[in-house]
Design goal:
The structure holds 2 protein chains of 2 kinds. Chain A is built from 5 helices and 5 strands, in the order ββαβββαααα. Chain A is an alpha+beta fold. The N and C termini of chain A lie far apart (38 Å). Chain B is an alpha+beta fold. Chain B has 3 domains: 221 residues, Aldehyde oxidase/xanthine dehydrogenase, molybdopterin binding domain (Aldehyde Oxidoreductase, domain 4), CATH 3.30.365.10; 148 residues, Aldehyde Oxidoreductase, domain 4, CATH 3.30.365; 324 residues, Aldehyde Oxidoreductase, domain 4 (2-Layer Sandwich). In chain B, the strands form 8 sheets. Chain B has a 7-stranded mixed beta sheet, with helices on both faces. In chain B, helix 3 runs parallel beside helix 5, helix 5 packs across helix 6 and helix 14 runs parallel beside helix 18. The chains are: A alpha+beta, B alpha+beta.
Chain lengths: 153, 734
């Protein structure tokens, strides 16, 4: 039975080896904050962190995770960059329908963790995999810069 | 963390109101909502059954306000939140007149009831056409003011003072002369004994403390941490998961299914074969989807097996040559067309899918004689009706739990997903969540129709003397809201064409209905104005060019009867740097629109490279929407709406081949991404006029301004969307 460390907690489940993490999170563990958008890694709604790196969980077979740590939107607020991103998202009212925003926040938090002061090109590169149908991109860019300007915690 | 967040998160964001209402409650609701009576649908037996939660012990003077003994103020939302901000704007309006403590209000979704929660402009409980604020502006102000009046009266009676010597603010009634105060919670019982004033005094707008302020959205905190629950996140004990395949050809039927391989997939529990679809039920979506992929289905493709985009366009073009039903006629257009240089134009728009980020889904629990639905919808009562019919139970036995929507854009003005899910559920011995794959979502949408607009105008001395405009396309109203299709005219299809903002003495607007075979059509964010603003504003640039005039100067000369639009145009000219030098093959284009009762002028600046690839450089928009209830949300809707419209202009097209939609997912139905989005500057004009609509306005504004920018940059006059990069490549210019 696979065991995976998710948000600091070891979770076990009995699922097919090729089952993508997305569906384990949502349908088996009931962690519905991670979203299904396309199923083919085109939209980024399902983004989680695998050892801090942003990964599309819709194409990540659960059996390949091994010892690596998973962080989801439910756990990202416990990280300093995650908390800064969440705050900036609310300070600038980035969000509209919000369905893509779990993925946006996960991608942005991963960016800031590696690149504390991203420029526009860094933001483009890190965030172009996340589609927002409401078109919140202008504010996403501003919010990442706002979060980057907050003092390190 | 403030109490708002606590109350919202505490009830898992936003709760549903569950049924039960007293006759007294209903009566009060009707009184407070008397303004809507003219639009009401006939009373149905079920109406008495519906709604309005357990209000025992609460002050519930009307359908929208509940105050309990602790002072907890709960506002019932008659319109749905799909990102457009109504779960902040409507509470601002209610709380303003109620003098509630905005920091402590909680929200609940209204239950289904056209009678109590119908949108006054539609007569049914629908959220669309950018009219939530417009439709509920007065009703909610009256509801809030009536409740406040009763609370003040109750306090005054207790103190034995004149109510006019008392004031209210932040959920507290004060008697300044004596310094006494009473909180709303303490007045709930006494206020509940009073009669509802039919015409309470509304605030003077100069006294507004909440309306007009960029208050924080009430729906967003739960959207940052995964705690918000959309319809697709529904989890029920013992639930199974299903996904489905409908006939790839519209209207086709299942002929044969070989499910032997599917049934060996781990986690697959059941294959449900219906007349028009096949669903696989499993322990999770992965099993269901893997099982579905393992099915071998043959379809009876039916009458639409040969339908193609090519044929649809040929039919549309032929139909557009007919005379249409007259939607508007002013002066003498035939004579007017002879009084100047006659110019013709044709514009065409493609089918579009909605592709909200939350794919279609619906969760169903059937019990003997009853049905429970969890979904996110723009049409609560239609969902209830659809479920009742599909389940074969009385309307009052259907409970609908609405949710925040992961995008609507018009797709969730339909209830087809509920019909499919209930029909599947009837074969499954467990609660079931049905989730569409993105591919099924795109291929079984209800599409924005193809349109063709044919325009003739006459120019004389730099002015338009005559304008003949013919819209040809599907009538969505005829299916969705038949009252909106009368004497051959679809009021949505000609919206923004019959109310063209320009001064033109001789004008005629016609409509020709033609339905694409097999392809279902529906409302798409921006609705009729998407088509008409595009055609009108593109043609205005063509005419300006013909007249040898600057596009803004040309429009200015004909906007005398629409001063708010003229003012917006002047400001956008200034803010966008109109007329300032640009690099080679870069240009600015303008569009103006009076659509949805907001007056908006937009300039798009774009660059076209030698291969015809288009880059957006900057967008500037000026909006006069009257009183901006929440100006920050107005800005956000413009920013997002412009991107939604520009996405369609740059990429959006659904094509049909052999009766099937060719596109399937975001790889071939592309969206603008962050690296393609330019700075977007939105200026909100201060105004004391009644609020206009805002959610769809950016969508209609972007495409014509982009097309005109491309015209300015390259000299190429595109007349259809999405933009044809081939036509823009150097050397291909005509």
């Amino acid at each position: 039975m696979p065991a995976v460390k998710i948000n600091g907690e070891v979770r076990t489940f009995d699922v097919p080896d090729d089952m993508p993490l997305l569906w384990v999170l949502r349908d088996v563990l009931g962690m519905t904050g991670t979203k299904f958008g396309c199923g083919i890694a085109q939209c980024g709604a399902c983004t989680v962190h695998v050892d801090g790196n942003p990964v599309r969980s819709c194409l990540l077979p659960v059996s390949l995770i091994g010892e690596k740590s998973i962080t989801t939107i439910e756990g990202i607020g416990a990280t300093p960059t995650g908390a800064k991103i969440q705050k900036a998202w609310l300070d600038l009212e980035v969000i509209q329908c919000g369905y893509c925003q779990s993925g946006q926040i996960m991608s942005a938090a991963a960016l800031l963790a590696v690149t504390p002061h991203p420029d526009d090109a860094d933001i483009d590169a890190a965030m172009a995999g996340n589609i927002c149908r409401c078109g919140t991109y202008v504010r996403i860019r501003e919010a990442i810069k706002l979060a980057a300007s907050e003092p390190r915690t | 963390m403030s109490l708002i967040e606590n109350s919202l998160i505490g009830c898992h964001s936003i709760e549903n109101l569950t049924p039960t209402v007293s006759r007294r409650g209903l009566l009060k609701a009707s009184l407070a909502a008397g303004f809507t009576l003219a639009f009401r649908l006939p009373l149905r037996a079920s109406d008495e059954m519906d709604q309005s939660a357990n209000n025992e012990g609460k002050f519930a003077p009307n359908a929208f306000i509940r105050i309990d003994h602790t002072g907890q103020t709960t506002l019932v939302m008659p319109q749905v939140e799909m990102g457009q901000g109504v779960y902040t704007a409507l509470p601002q309006i209610l709380a303003e007149e109620l003098d509630a403590d905005f920091g402590k209000v909680a929200l609940v979704h209204a239950p289904p009831s056209d009678k109590i929660y119908g949108n006054p402009l539609f007569g049914i409980q629908a959220t669309g056409n950018s009219n939530s604020v417009r439709a509920f502006w007065k009703p909610l102000r009256i509801a809030g003011a009536a409740a406040r009046t009763m609370l003040v009266q109750a306090a005054a009676a207790q103190w034995q003072v004149d109510p006019t010597s008392c004031s209210a603010a932040d959920g507290v009634v004060r008697h300044p002369a004596s310094g006494r105060t009473l909180a709303y919670g303490d007045l709930a019982d006494a206020a509940g004994q009073l009669s509802v004033p039919p015409a309470p005094v509304l605030k003077d707008p100069k006294d507004f403390v909440l309306i007009g302020k960029p208050l924080k959205r009430l729906d967003t905190p739960g959207k940052t941490n995964g705690s918000v629950v959309y319809g697709i996140d529904t989890m029920l004990p013992g639930m199974k998961f299903a996904t489905l395949a409908a006939s790839p050809v519209f209207g086709g039927k299942v002929k044969h299914v070989d499910d032997s391989a599917a049934k060996t997939v781990p986690g697959v529990r059941q294959v449900v074969v219906l007349d028009d679809l096949v669903a696989v039920v499993g322990d999770h979506m992965w099993a269901a989807k893997t099982g579905l992929d393992a099915l071998a289905i043959t379809w009876d493709e039916g009458a639409n097996a040969d339908v193609s985009s090519q044929q649809i366009w040929a039919d549309l073009r032929a139909a557009s040559k007919q005379d249409g039903a007259i939607a508007k006629s002013v002066g003498d257009v035939a004579k007017g067309l002879l009084q100047g240089e006659k110019i013709d134009g044709e514009f065409e728009l493609p089918f579009l899918a909605h592709a909200p980020m939350e794919p279609m889904n619906c969760t169903v629990r059937l019990t003997p004689g009853a049905c429970e639905i969890w979904t996110g919808t723009q049409v609560m009562t239609r969902v209830q009706e659809t479920a009742a019919k599909a389940a074969g139970v009385p309307l009052q036995k259907v409970t609908v739990h609405n949710h925040l929507l992961g995008g609507g854009f018009g797709r969730r003005l339909e209830a087809d997903m509920v019909d499919s899910a209930v029909r599947i559920a009837k074969h499954v011995d467990a609660p079931i969540k049905v989730v569409w794959t993105r591919e099924e979502d795109i291929r079984h949408d209800v599409y924005r129709p193809v349109y063709r607009d044919v325009i003739s105008a006459a120019l004389s001395n730099g002015k338009i003397t005559a304008w003949k405009y013919r819209v040809t396309g599907s009538s969505i109203m005829a299916r969705w809201f038949p009252a909106g299709f009368q004497k051959g005219v679809d009021i949505d299809a000609v919206d923004s064409a019959v109310d063209i903002p320009y001064d033109i003495a001789n004008l005629q607007v016609e409509y020709v209905r033609t339905e694409p075979p097999g392809v279902p059509t529906g409302f798409w964010r921006g609705v009729g104005p998407n088509n008409n603003v595009f055609a009108i504003e593109c043609f205005m640039d063509d005419l300006a060019r013909k007249a040898g005039a600057d596009p803004i100067a040309f429009r200015r000369g004909m906007l005398g009867k629409t001063p708010r639009l003229l003012a917006a145009l002047d400001l956008v000219a200034e803010k966008s740097g109109w007329g300032k030098p640009l690099p080679a093959r870069a240009g600015r284009g303008v569009s103006v629109q009076p659509s949805f009762a907001s007056f908006i002028a937009t300039v798009v600046e774009a660059q076209v490279d030698d291969h015809g690839e288009v880059t957006l450089r900057k967008v500037t928009s000026v909006v006069d929407t009257g009183i901006a209830v929440n100006p920050d949300i107005v800005v956000a809707q413009l920013q997002g709406g412009l991107i939604f419209g520009l996405t369609a202009a740059l990429y959006g097209e659904i094509t049909i081949d052999k009766g099937r939609v060719r596109q399937s997912n975001f790889n071939d139905y592309r969206m603008l991404r962050i690296d393609e989005v330019p700075p977007i500057e939105v200026h909100v004009v201060k105004s004391g006029e009644e609020p206009g609509g805002i959610g769809e306005t950016g969508v209609t504004a972007g495409p014509p301004a982009l097309r005109n920018a491309i015209y300015a940059a390259t000299g190429v006059r595109l007349n259809r969307l999405p933009i044809d990069r081939g036509a823009l490549a150097v050397g291909r210019q005509v």
